[in-house]
Amino acid sequence: MVAKGEDQAAERQWERELLEEFADPRSRNRAFERLVRQYQKPLYYHIRRMVLDHDEADDLVQNTLIRCYQALDRFEARSSLYTWLYRIATNLCLTHLEKKRKRRWLSLSDENTLREAEGQRETPVSRSDSPERILEKALLTLPPKQRLVFQMRYYDELPYEQMSEILGTSTGALKASYHWAFKKVENYLRHL
Fold first, then answer.
1. pLDDT tens digits, the chain, 192 residues: what are they?
2. Whether residue 71 sits in one domain with residue 35
3. This model's pTM is above 0.85
4. Per the domain annotation, does 115 fall within a domain?
5. What is the domain count for the chain?
6. Which domain holds residue 141?
7. Which residue from 48, 184, 187, 189 could staple onto 57, CB 3.0 to 4.6 Å apart?
């Protein structure tokens, strides 16, 4: 079994090599292809859990990778490349969700639509729903940022310190947010 410290050292070494390769115009595209192979799938699942729609998630992954390509030569390595990419993806995702919420809000015609747009109305659970689908419906009842914290901790198993770097929030605030999100999900599931 490889120790966690050895994994981190290997990841840092891989990142250094990738950044050196990216800095050379002759190998830039090859380096970026390596980056995409490494991070595209985890980024997709991170984003997909937030937006739920496959096409929207694909678009956001593509936008994340475009932003990465445009800024990678200025990456200062204050955090890991993984953390930096997740921060880009998270910010794009939150902006997308906010724009989507505002578009819905502007086109509202009745109070029920307003509750749906703000995520206050629960999506009914059917008997055919899988446990994963039921959990997804429970997560839809959370505010977007709280849902994001829950997903990063629960699904991605990110440590609070790394989440703090990605979201620019203190670890204490993240722990509290996760706690409240967990309680809300637990309450939702209890009342099925």
1. 445 667 788 888 999 999 999 999 999 999 999 999 999 999 999 999 888 889 999 999 999 999 999 999 899 888 899 999 999 999 999 999 888 877 766 554 444 444 444 444 455 777 777 888 888 888 888 888 899 999 999 988 999 999 999 888 999 999 999 999 999 999 998 988
2. yes
3. no
4. no
5. 2
6. 122-192
7. 48
Q: Quick one: tokens of 135?
A: 């959990």
Please tell me whether residue 27 adopts helix, strand or coil conformation. coil
Block residue for tokens 């637990």: 186
DSSP 3-state percent helix, strand, coil across the chain (nearest 5): 75, 0, 25
Neighbouring C-alpha atoms within 13 Å toward the C-beta of 36: 14
Q: Do 133 and 159 sit in the same domain of this protein? A: yes
HSE-up of residue 191 (Cα within 13 Å, Cβ side): 10
